[in-house]
Amino acid sequence: MSLPKIGIDRALRYTTRIDHTVESALGVDEGGGLVTPGLSGRHTAAHPSRRHTMYDQLTGLPNRVMFKHAMYAAMSATAAQRPIGLCHLDLDGFTTINQTHGYDAGDLLLQTIAQRLSAVLCEGCLVARTGSDQFTVLVSASAHVTDITRVAEAIQQAVRRPLELDGRQISVTACIGMATPPPAGSAVGSLLSAAESALALARAAGHDQRRLFDADQHAHRLACHETAHQLRLALQRGELFLEYQPIVEAGSRDLYGVEALVRWRHPQRGVLGPAEFIPVAEQTGLINDVGRFVLRTACAQARQWLARHPGRRLVMSVNVAPPQADDPEFAGYVAELLSHCGIDPDLLQLEITESSMLSTSGQVTETIRTLAGLGVRVAIDDFGTGYANLANLRSLPVHTLKLARQFVTAFAGDGGSVDAAMVDAIVRLARGLGLGVIAEGVETPEQADTVRRLGCDLIQGFLYGKPQSPQAIDDRLATVAPSAVS
């Protein structure tokens, strides 16, 4: 592959505006050439103290400090007409290689990759080791995206070549984030941040991927980080609260239970629904804290209702996120909470999404078995969307299937008969397995009549009540006749 012959040495040529100390640290000769490893293979011996501070001791490449100096020079006023770009790469599975083959083998791998990059990158590219298993390439005069892409392709091809470690041949890959020439006036930190953001997108796509910086996606990531920060504070400041949506018996329309739904009373944005922060909580590891808050608050509320209305055995249904179901400590926490609150386990229903059950083994399965052993009801949420393993469903102690709401909302559309047939099939399946069925998203009398006719046991939706305050449910309990939990 022929790479663009673009000279970073010219871009890094210093004028009287550039401090001579930085020029010396970068190793720029009198002709303006950058004399470092990784640039056209040319280098000279650096002063020992300078080499210690400006070069990576393992690979001999420039380190992050020196690389940033080079970027400052390339983005200086005198080099403003010579746009630059970055390729920021991260080796896939490097931690596993260290754990499997040892740290000496990991060091050898890094040295080999450094040599390969130095060999494949032509004049106009400066490569540095900028992290444990990360390298960054500065490409000069790349006015077009294709220049950066060609450099990235060459890097990935070089990394993919097999090598021998610990007497065995292995292959490694790398993900690359690419940042194109920045707008006029952009800072070094902005370009580095752009490349790191693109790398995060590449890693999210899998191994051996590369992605170009996307400003919209970067802004979304920043917003997610800010949401996560604010959510941590919200947990401390008590800004989260619960509302409860009624679940009624299909035949009698009597109140059977409620689903606890978390809300966030945001100080600037007002009340936020779960869709606006739960995905961020799952991505950032905050979901366990949020989930425990929801479960703790819901169980405490169930105890209060039971104390005020002893004849009303209301089932409290709580959503469980996939990371919670995969937590080995989750079932134990539920057991402690039930004991502390003093409520019967069969008054607690935990909704686990169908997608969490795709595996026929593992922690999720163990969690479901343990919860059922406690006497807790287990419902499979959004059933019909996650391709659940039916053999697994047959063998697990599940009590209820909760239909995905799109089946119900589509009844009135052109494909309504098809969706009704699918609901009928799911109800028949549930009957064969001895399971109950909940239809959610019911908003019209016609939808209610349809799910009732198809044999659904319980109904949830705006037709029978929107999510509401604990006091509203309390008032409802005080004005309707008791019904026994089946």
Instruction: Give the percentage of residues in beta strands.
Output: 15-25%
Low-confidence stretches: 1-45
Global geometry: elongated
What's the helical proportion of residues?
40-55%
The biggest sheet amounts to: 8 strands, mixed, barrel
**How do the strands of the widest beta sheet line up side by side?**
8-9-11-12-13-14-15-16
What structural class do you assign from the helix and strand content? Answer: alpha/beta
Average of the residue pLDDT scores: 84
Total number of beta strands: 16
Task: Write down the Rg.
Answer: 30 Å
The total of helices stands at 19
> N- to C-terminal separation?
71 Å
Task: Explain the overall architecture.
- The chain has 486 residues and is of the alpha/beta class.
- The protein is built from 19 helices and 16 strands.
- The protein has an 8-stranded mixed barrel, surrounded by 6 helices.
- A hairpin with a 2-residue loop joins strand 4 (163-165) and strand 5.
- Helix 5 (94-101) packs across helix 6 and helix 6 (103-120) packs across helix 7.
- It starts with 7 loop residues before the first helix and ends in a 7-residue tail after the last helix.
Summarize the structure in short:
This protein is of the alpha/beta class and 486 residues long. The chain has helices at residues 8-11, 20-26, 48-54, 64-74, 94-101, 103-120, 145-160, 188-205, 215-237, 278-284, 287-308, 322-325, 330-341, 363-374, 390-395, 405-409, 416-433, 445-453, 470-479, and strands spanning 84-91, 125-129, 134-140, 163-165, 168-170, 174-179, 210-212, 240-249, 255-266, 270-272, 315-320, 348-353, 377-383, 400-403, 436-440, 458-460.
